[in-house]
Amino acid sequence: MTLESVRTATAEPPLAGGGLPLLGHGWKLARTPLDFLTGLRDHGDVVRLGLGPKTVYAVTAPELVGEVALSPDYIIAGPLWESLESLLGKEGVATANGPLHRRQRRTIQPAFRLDAIPGYGPVMEEEARALVERWRGLDVLDVTTESFRVATRIAARCLMRGSYMDERAERICADLAALFSGMYQRMVVPLGPLYRVPLPANREFNRALADLHLLVDEIVADRRASGQKPDDLLTALLEATDENGEPIGEQEIHDQVIAILTPGSETVGSMIMSLLLVLTEYPEHADKIRAEVKNVVGDRPVGFDDVRSLAYTGNVVVETLRLYPAVWILTRRAVTDTVLGGYRIPAGADIVYSPYALQRDPRSYRRAEVFDPDRWLPGASEEVPKYAMSPFSVGNRKCPSDHFSMAEMTLLTATMASAFTFEETRDSDPRHRIGITLRPKNLRLRPVSR
Ligand code: HEM
């Protein structure tokens, strides 16, 4: 951004309609966030929102979202991150900025490199097979519990190897489930001290948070006591040094473990739920996955090495990420006066954008609301404008785990679809549930063995 363009840009972005006196647009963002954010594109590429006394800038055009994600004028901050920071710590990679963030990314990146992923294959395969065995014994699946369970177990067992993880993975699952249900509320309705009132919901939230922190301390202490240094993310964190070559502090190690486990479980867990909904609601796509598995794999269980040959299954996963992106809202803060789409953005302004809204925009996608995995076939996918499909984000904050997650989700989808068909029970509620992530509200499925 040139200084000259910052000086000459004076126009304010248009104000979104429908704000209420005093409350502004906050009530819409709290009550019907997906419809509200999706509708903003009709007001402009950059739109002003009032959240109480605060002005927030919503970005609705893919090329401008790319500009925000790639520009050093914006950092990770804003209401989403502040609420996460207060719960999960300030020294983890997901909330740090500047040199600290760069150093932390250098430490964790090797664990997520493309050539590191096959090393996780055996754990992913083992967990996929255990899931099939477990589901064969269940009449009805509580899909929320089952999806978060397998996501947490895979993240914890791959990144922090060791048998001591098996029993703790269950505890991590239970704690994270309790925490995630309370987090979004704390983000959009920041009532501070009221969350300390000893109501049952607050007590459960605080218990889970305390246990999660305790668990992380136990995991770190056990690993140290074992004297072992397997080639994994936990070893990388324990051996990391700062800019002066000194070991990083205990608090940073602790916050880093939380900052990786938390998004790792919540996002993949939500996506597995959405993938199960897709397999249930679109049996024709589930049939095609089964045919692909039969053709590529035959009758043996799906293996990690099969994943790269399961092109159709992969496209179902990508299309599910497009229509049901687990990370449906992101925020940034401008660190300097800057210009976006010809509009002036003042230093300190909060920016918000929604992968959900961008990925359903008819200006970017033909038949945008239709679930069509074939739009990701080579030749067709080039039509999609740049940054109109970024479920893992782009730039220096891009999810380090994109390859890991794609391999995991493709393996699980192929395994689940070839072992079962699914029927929704009468008490199932597949509507969107909007929290820190987007997922079906309370999906309950009967697994019918094939
Ligand atoms: C960051 C999505 C799985 C760890 C992000 C961001 C997105 C995202 C959109 C960027 C946030 C931003 O731009 O502000 C997803 C999705 C996943 C997934 C859709 C699964 C389908 C995982 C897993 C892990 C993980 C499995 C770890 C095991 C992280 C971390 C960051 C991050 C540590 C922060 C990176 C940074 O700020 O430098 N993720 N994620 N994610 N994700 Fe993921």
TrEMBL record:
Pfam families: p450 (PF00067). It comes from the Bacteria. Gene3D superfamilies: Cytochrome P450. The keyword Protein transport does not apply. GO terms for molecular function: heme binding; iron ion binding; monooxygenase activity; oxidoreductase activity, acting on paired donors, with incorporation or reduction of molecular oxygen. Heme binds at residue 399. Keywords: Heme, Iron, Metal-binding, Monooxygenase, Oxidoreductase. SUPFAM superfamilies: Cytochrome P450. Its cofactor is heme. Belongs to the cytochrome P450 family. This is Cytochrome P450. It comes from Streptomyces roseirectus.
